[in-house]
Amino acid sequence: SVAISPDGRSLAIGRDSGSVLLWSLRANKPHGQPLTGLGSDVLSVAFSADGDLLAGGSLDTAIVWAFDKGRQLVSGIAGGFGFALRPTGQTIVLFDRRPGRSGLTLWPTGL
Question: What is the value of pTM for the model shown?
């Protein structure tokens, strides 16, 4: 999964290693350390509307990071196939298609 930051300067690239690589489009090279903690293939990444937050998710879990600091702000959100942040970053939307969990779930981030 790949997401472009709202300002168009960065990419977030979900990786098989359970990490998210941050890429500077201006410098054409990685920016900072990869964001970690997802544990398995990253299926979805999404920026908040202001670009301050980045959500990433795997089948196991989802995490919200402070984009510039690379610090985990929210963890322990259920995993799924697709994730999106509401523009304010206060809710993460989770899509899952596994039996018994199929559909959309809104999780408050507490931010």
Answer: 0.87
